[in-house]
Amino acid sequence: MPHEQGSSLKRSIVFQGEHGAYSEQAIRKLFGESPTTIPCRSFREMLKLVSEEKVDCAMLPVENSLAGTVIPAYDALIESELFVHAEVMLRIEHCLMAPEGVKIEDIRYVISHHQALSQCMRHIEEEGFEAKEYYDTAGSARDLATLKMPFTAAIASELAAKTYGLEILRMGFEDLDTNTTRFFLMGREARKCEGRCKTSMIFTTEHKPGALFKVLGELSDRNLNLTKIESRPFTKEMWHYLFFVDFEGSVSEKRVEEAVNAISSRCSYFKLLGSYRSANDVELNSNQLT
Questions:
Q1: Proportion of the chain in helix, strand, coil states, percent, rounded to 5
Q2: Is 152 part of the annotated catalytic residue set?
Q3: Residues 85 and 102 placed together within one structural domain of the fold
Q4: Considering 43, 83, 183, 244, which one is annotated as catalytic?
Q5: Is 289 a domain residue?
Q6: For position 185, which CATH number holds?
Q7: Which of 137, 152, 163, 181 is labelled catalytic?
């Protein structure tokens, strides 16, 4: 069971999916084997567990280098009051796996999440496999290990293969080796960030000419580098949009604090998601996230 905040037990981190998911692998990349990892059905549910202090943090996938923004994750952030504690970049390496004793020439079918299948389609077609969509990558590995599925392999992570006792038939089964997912570690309190940091925020502007230009000008006027901008429909106002913005810098810097205050004053809605250590900072120390 997840532990309450302040317990002497080790940290608990929730993720969406089944054990062996890439989100769980991102947790292991950041913290090693020390945290208790807890699978969850949805992004909203896992963020709620953090808010209710039933777990310490959540690992949320927000962007993939091939598939783009994870829209349900951004929608969940709109409703959440949590803050970003860290950024994790995980290289996605798909593995073709099967139960012990099954050889690749025995395989006729391959199961996985539709996104994983699409990212491996060239190799799937070269092998002559029939692709079948599954609800989850790690879930496909779990069910392959526990149910009778003759002539079938799964595509999932190396961690999933180890978790469910499957043999890896092919490592690096993905078509492109640039496949990387960006994650946010979400927690209840805003953290002070020093070093190479990023800041994320959500806002909507007034519905008039030049409004977004003026907001972004608060960053460029202070020589702050914009790294991402994404828009989503603002459900409270028809044909208005929320903007998700990431830029380099920390609110502990005077120019960033000034920019955030200026942007907030120009917006009809504003939420600061926090400042956090960039995944590109090789000096990131997970002990600072306790």
A1: 30, 30, 35
A2: no
A3: no
A4: 183
A5: no
A6: 3.40.190.10
A7: 181
Which two three-digit tokens encode residue 226?
């914009």
220 and 259 within one domain: yes
Residue 5 lies in a domain: no
Residue at 220 is within a domain = yes
If we measure between CA atoms, which residue out of 60, 68, 137 comes closest to residue 96? 137
Q: Pick from 135, 170, 205: which residue ends a domain?
A: 170
Asked whether the whole model's pTM tops 0.85, one would answer yes
Strands (E), the chain: 12-16, 36-40, 57-64, 68-69, 83-91, 95-98, 109-112, 130-133, 152-156, 167-170, 180-187, 197-205, 226-233, 241-248, 267-277
Q: How many CA atoms lie within 13 A of 154 on its CB side?
A: 32
Number of domains in the chain: 3
pLDDT in tens, the chain (290 residues): 343 333 334 799 999 999 999 999 999 999 999 999 999 999 999 999 999 999 999 999 999 998 888 999 999 999 999 999 999 999 999 999 999 999 999 999 999 999 899 999 999 999 999 999 998 999 999 999 999 999 999 999 999 999 999 999 999 999 999 999 999 999 999 999 988 999 999 999 988 899 999 999 999 999 999 999 999 998 878 888 999 999 999 999 999 999 999 999 999 999 999 999 998 763 345 555 55
User: Does 25 reside within a domain?
Assistant: yes
**DSSP 8-state assignment for residue 184:** E
Known catalytic membership, residue 181? yes
